[in-house]
Automatic annotation (TrEMBL):
It holds the Pfam family Lipase_GDSL_2. It comes from Botrimarina mediterranea. PANTHER family: SGNH HYDROLASE-TYPE ESTERASE DOMAIN-CONTAINING PROTEIN, THIOESTERASE 1/PROTEASE 1/LYSOPHOSPHOLIPASE L1. It comes from the Bacteria. Signal peptide: none annotated. Its EC number is 3.1.1.72. GO terms for molecular function: acetylxylan esterase activity; phosphatidylcholine lysophospholipase activity. Residues 11-184 form the SGNH hydrolase-type esterase domain. This is Acetylxylan esterase. Keywords: Hydrolase.
Amino acid sequence: MSSTEPCRIACVGASVTFGRGLPNRREQCYPAVLQRLLDERYGAGGCEVRNFGYSGATAARVSNEPYWQTPSFTAATRFEPHFVPLMLGTNDAQFANVSARRTLARDLADLVEHFRGLGAEVLAADPPPAFPPVAEIDFDALRDEVRPTVRRVAVEIGAPLVDFFSPLEDARAGFPDGLHPTAEVAEKIAQIAFGALEPLVGRWLGR
């Protein structure tokens, strides 16, 4: 707990975190909305939220776009966050990543442990829904392999699991291309993240 520095929150993820498809992603992406919600709750300067989303990123290390090898991973590490909402997995369900999924559980756990090693508390995310047709995504693998793996890993390593799926599973119209949310849905994603983070941040800030 510290009163001399802001609570640093690193939003780690792929294109939904990055804000792909939004008219004004810098203001409408969920990390930006989360910053505003935390400012309203704790006052400006209490928290610093940064967006470390990287479009196409996976949790698996040997895939077509491993988060491990992105500039966002390097930047998030240098940020030395106190809290990390980690929203990866949808891209692990791409047809191109069928072999990479064999190590998904281990790689996801290692990614959580990487940020824990920096002193951060990591919140694992069951990612928002995706809706067919999306040519790259194996929806059976997303449902039967990836999501269960994320949930299982969270339990096994004791990471809080934030459910971004169930509250939005009927919001097909809010994902125009099947993957990326509208600004309205991005705000709902931020509200879910805020609900999970608020008590943790409040404890950290001593409020």
